[in-house]
């Protein structure tokens, strides 16, 4: 028998259940970690009602964020990784200088529902930034101060913690620890190139770059390369997927209702070279043993490229088709920094243990309080 909604005690917050492979991987990681120490039926996660995550984890409850935090039994809140605190430009007076546009403002409003329960909270490898506008920074600091224990995924996020005068740990992206969980293909297709694309409305020049990328793909195909485009979020990436498909290149898109995580991750990692406009695509390609070329669409790609050792293979966002081809065809060995990658994975696994210990400790505290009352 599945426990009713009012019996849920743990809320996991994140951008989950919307068909984004990166966020799906993060939700898989954190729920799997929690499932090792608590009954799955005590956990609720912020996602659309009845979404595919409930199929992956029978007994898990999916609810939109506001409804989730409205459940009377919730008193442990876990921010489950990924970019959760950000505000993109412009910062204007009409948005209270970024405050109303900031995701932290939404979280601040939602968390008011559990304030009277004296809730406990944990931030697990979260991403902070960008935070444009002093309003965005003010409200984010206010929310982060209320988190009892927090770790972040990168130097930029850690810099915000320091700037806000808050303590925390600089860990890494949880996906670094997934190498042994998924069927990552070390055997590669000969002369094969997988290209992970994405739509991104936070910068100009995206369509121009995609056209150059298509030209480069045509040039590489003429040299006998097998080219395959991938999308990690089909609905969001639709405008870019259409441009690529109209140019004669099919796009394989992540669909959580028709494909398993194992199969899709395995498909990406089967390509000898992986170009990626997404950070998690870059991590998966690296873990799968592919030679990777990060496309520097945003700062997060530069951070992951540095951690993995792909700096010299980075593709600037303003690169021409010829420049793209030259970078892809560099006659250099796979120079991934496996020592650094292993360190990133170990740091995540240690942080996972800290999260599990925190959950178990709070369970003991619960039992102690109940015995006092009885």
Structure characterization notes:
This protein is α/β, with parallel strands linked by helices and 374 residues long. The chain has 2 domains: 197 residues, Rossmann fold (3-Layer(aba) Sandwich), CATH 3.40.50; 148 residues, Rossmann fold, CATH 3.40.50.2000. The protein is built from 13 helices and 14 strands. The strands form 2 sheets. Strands 1, 2, 3, 4, 5, 6, 7 and 8 form an 8-stranded parallel sheet that branches. It has a 6-stranded parallel sheet with strand order 11-10-9-12-13-14, with helices on both faces. Strand 1, helix 1 and strand 2 form a beta-alpha-beta unit. The chain is globular.
Q: How is the biggest beta sheet arranged?
A: 8 strands, parallel
- Which residues sit in consecutive blocks of at least 5 with pLDDT less than 50? none
- Percentage of residues in strands: 15-25%
Kindly provide the name of the CATH class of the largest domain.
Answer: Alpha Beta
CATH topology assignment of the largest domain = Rossmann fold
Number of domains: 2
Question: What is the gyration radius calculated from CA atoms?
Answer: 21 Å
Q: How many alpha or pi helices?
A: 13
Number of strands: 14
The backbone outline, from C-alpha atoms, is: globular
Helical content (DSSP H or I, runs of 4+): 40-55%
The assigned structural class equals alpha/beta
Report the mean per-residue pLDDT as an integer. Answer: 91
Distance between the termini: 27 Å
